[in-house]
Design brief:
The protein has about 250 residues and is an alpha/beta fold. The protein is built from 6 helices and 11 strands. The chain has an 11-stranded mixed beta sheet, covered by helices on one side. β10 (about 230-235) and β11 (about 240-245) form a beta hairpin. α1 runs parallel beside α2.
Length: about 250
């Protein structure tokens, strides 16, 4: 699917090629994966409609979503996002899985999450998928005997249960070079607070949601110091803007 790049270049570009230019920017020798964050927001700053992000997106946003998933080693999502979006298999398209194998990647990204209370939404389709691989960082023991997915629970002491530590373990134990965070707002805020996010892909949907309690793309306590992001790319398709920022 082609997009119009408005800045820094003026060109038409396939979204897979655009994402590939960024995902290929792995940082060899670092202790953690190169971490991308993907969010969508309405013009008035809402990240969801009726509790889910899907209602904000169009075909372009879905194409970006798929391209990011297809290019990374692992996907990170909070347990609330896993439950609200009812996560299933990472790549449902067999052709996409085959392309990853041809590129030397696993057929699908590893899924990872972090839970301090030891709770998991084992009822969602992801955990019923035998080929899904899931790593859970937890502060408590978790019974995953009911899951058909391949679930690995990594128990960490409370003072080490951070995204910094989780990302380091993903790099060291699973060889994860590139990681995509798909939410939610609290997870993104914690990644920013710990300074372990590198790129933000923000889709600005040409919609107004109106009042209500829908969150922004971050939530929780304010950051100690506001982060000044670097605008690194602007795409447009059918009135939707696709912004890319550097965070670190």
């Amino acid at each position: 699917m082609k997009f119009s790049e408005l800045w820094p270049l003026n060109r038409e570009i396939e979204i897979e090629a655009y994402v590939g230019e960024v995902v290929g920017a792995d940082m060899p020798g670092t202790e953690r994966p190169f971490t991308l964050v993907n969010f969508i927001s309405s013009v008035d700053g809402r990240a969801t409609i009726n509790g889910r992000s899907g209602g904000l997106g169009d075909d372009g946003d879905k194409a970006l979503f798929r391209a990011l998933r297809q290019g990374v080693d692992a996907v990170l999502a909070g347990t609330g996002t896993l439950r609200a979006e009812r996560y299933g298999r990472m790549l449902g398209d067999p052709a996409a899985r085959e392309r990853r194998l041809e590129q030397g990647l696993s057929s699908e990204p590893l899924v990872c999450t972090l839970t301090r209370g030891g709770t998991l939404p084992l009822e969602i389709p992801l955990f019923a998928e035998p080929e899904a691989r899931v790593v859970v960082f937890s502060g408590a023991d978790i019974d995953t005997s009911g899951a058909q997915a391949q679930v690995e629970v990594v128990r960490l002491p409370a003072d080490q249960l951070t995204f910094t530590q989780a990302l380091r373990q993903l790099r060291a134990m699973h060889g994860v070079r590139t990681l995509l965070c798909e939410g939610g707002p609290r997870v993104f805020a914690e990644l920013a607070r710990e300074a372990v996010a590198d790129q933000l892909f923000l889709t600005l949907s040409s919609t107004l949601v109106g009042g209500g309690s829908a969150p922004a793309i971050t939530s929780g306590p304010p950051l100690p110091m506001p982060d000044r992001l670097r605008l690194e790319g602007v795409l447009e398709r059918d009135g939707t803007l696709f912004l890319r920022y550097g965070l670190t």
